[in-house]
Amino acid sequence: MDPVISIQSLEKTYDNGFEALKKVELEVISGEILALLGPNGAGKTTLISTVCGIVNPTGGKVTVGGYDIIHDYRKTRQMIGLVPQELHTESFETVWATVNFSRGLFGLKPNPEYIEGILKDLSLWDKKDTKIMQLSGGMKRRLLIAKALSHEPTVLFLDEPTAGVDVELRQDMWRVVEKLRQNGVTIILTTHYIEEAEEIADRIAIINNGRIELVERKDELMRKLGRKQLTLELREPLQSIPDNLADFNLELQAEGSRLVYDYDATQSHTGIAGLMQALSEQGIAFKDLATRQSSLEDIFIDLIKESS
Amino acid sequence: MNRHSVSAIYRFEMARTRRTILQSIVSPVISTSLYFVVFGAAIGSRITSVEGVSYGAFIVPGLMILSLMTQSISNASFGIYFPKFTGTIYELLSAPVSFFEIMLGYVGAAATKAIIVGSIILITAAFFVDLTIMHPFSMLVFFILTAVTFSLFGFIIGIWADNFEKLQLIPLLIVTPLVFLGGSFYSISMLPDLWQKITLLNPVLYLISGFRWSFYGVSDVNVWVSFAMIIGFLVICSYVVWWIFKTGYQIRE
Ligand SMILES: Nc1ncnc2c1ncn2[C@@H]1O[C@H](COP(=O)(O)OP(=O)(O)OP(=O)(O)O)[C@@H](O)[C@H]1O
Ligand SMILES: [Mg+2]
């Protein structure tokens, strides 16, 4: 469980005096997929840009693979691949030329087979001689990923890789991410699609107003903060909740034909048995039941509301 | 020193020239030929020789300096400004390269292009006039130092500029007038006394004078003064680049 990236009291104040990062503490574990979530303007891009060397930190310390990002910038940047949020590309270059340039820029000898492999994985191989300006937005996104992978990084930052990307590319992308993870690459991604983080991340970090609000293993987080709901479809609608059920956290919906029970799944006594008993005592029958676990999205929204 | 990185930047910049060969190489040749027609033929028919050199041949060093300077500045300034403009500079900033190496790549490529254009102009000129190069070594030194110095200067402009207007501003408002007024097309001895003194304040005059001395052995000022001027300017530009490197001015947030 070595941290590959360690961020300590990182601060960034922009020239206009805006504090984009406030004493950020974060450790990224080697080989994991960490999803960095936060609303617009939370500081996700600033945080990533600082670790990658694009933005100078105002204070604090960051190490990557044990090396300081300022003093040993050559070593740390060599390890890092970055796919930026904005589609910054050249226009007149070909796909092949620009990806090979990226590799050279990172000081590596040409390796056409390796580049070919990346382009094939990203379904860009048939576009290799196409000028970048002739690519669609989604293809440019793939190209940026190819450039980021061209120097065989062991840490990959994906800043909103799926913004404006269709379903197929998204699946392509997650296949590539999965393959990278199997090769031991550490991946840090930001996204506004929370289901996405829920699906692929090992850990979740939530940032808001330049502060890390929470870092937690995803399953742990879901377990701790996740609420469960039991929904009962009643045979006969109820006018109101009977008195002997008042102790339960119940809500009547759909004109009294649906009873919803909120409970905490982490407790050993969920109260479901008691509820069932109380229902049968009252002679309330139901025709169907369903349980639902709250999603990461619900947790996220609750947290952001709370902190602001 | 990260040789692969420097050479990647250098080759990428040179590839851009190959793609825009018409604009980068052909157009300076055409404009120089026009100068020959206009100045060489039209004026040359009235002024037959300046200090014993035929007028057409006399203007060759000045023309070369003119194109060396404008080419160096525009290549280098555009080269580094463009990634800032398109945002692709993120890649340079996140790469394991020092600012010095980035500078080497861009300035090297810009100077190379300027030297290529300058050489083509020299060859083109040879078709129009009889050229002699009396001091080839000194000619080469001025040639290369001018290309390198003004590529550095262009690199500084490209970093300083945050819009296209600023990118054009200095070359247009300062450099071109200085070159034209620096004796590209005349010897300052042809000017009235007062203007001679004023012209001596123009740094480009020293450059053209030294370069012309390398060709024909005639000069407006002592060649060592010329040499000192170009070295001085090189030192100033290097210092500014070093300062930019230290402060991260206009590069990193
Ligand atoms: N160059 C800059 N100068 C001043 N303020 C900036 C600069 N760049 C970003 N900011 C501010 O810093 C804050 C964080 O921006 P950042 O881009 O890191 O947010 P983000 O979490 O990536 O948002 P998004 O989800 O919209 O991409 C924002 O309030 C933004 O306005
Ligand atoms: Mg962002």
TrEMBL record, chain A:
Q: Sorted alphabetically, which keywords does the UniProt record give?
A: ATP-binding, Nucleotide-binding, Transport
GO molecular function terms attached to this record: ATP binding; ATP hydrolysis activity
Pfam families according to UniProt: ABC_tran
Tell me the ranges covered by the ABC transporter domain, including all copies.
5-234
PROSITE patterns (UniProt xref) = ABC_TRANSPORTER_1, ABC_TRANSPORTER_2
InterPro entries in alphabetical order = AAA+_ATPase, ABC_transporter-like_ATP-bd, ABC_transporter-like_CS, ABC_transporter_ATP-binding, P-loop_NTPase
| SUPFAM superfamilies (alphabetical) | P-loop containing nucleoside triphosphate hydrolases
Q: Does the keyword Metal-binding apply?
A: no
Q: What is this protein called?
A: Putative atp-binding abc transporter protein
Instruction: Please spell out the taxonomic lineage of the organism that makes this protein.
Output: Bacteria, Pseudomonadati, Pseudomonadota, Gammaproteobacteria, Oceanospirillales
From TrEMBL, chain B:
- Is Membrane a UniProt keyword of this protein? yes
Q: Tell me the keywords, alphabetical order.
A: Cell membrane, Membrane, Transmembrane, Transmembrane helix, Transport
MF terms from GO for this chain are: ABC-type transporter activity
Subcellular location per the Swiss-Prot or TrEMBL entry: Cell inner membrane; Membrane
InterPro entries noted in UniProt: ABC-2_transport_permease (IPR052522), ABC2_TM (IPR013525), ABC2_TM_bact-type (IPR047817), ABC_2_transport (IPR000412)
State the similarity comment.
Answer: Belongs to the ABC-2 integral membrane protein family.
Supply the name of the protein: Transport permease protein
Source species: Reinekea blandensis MED297
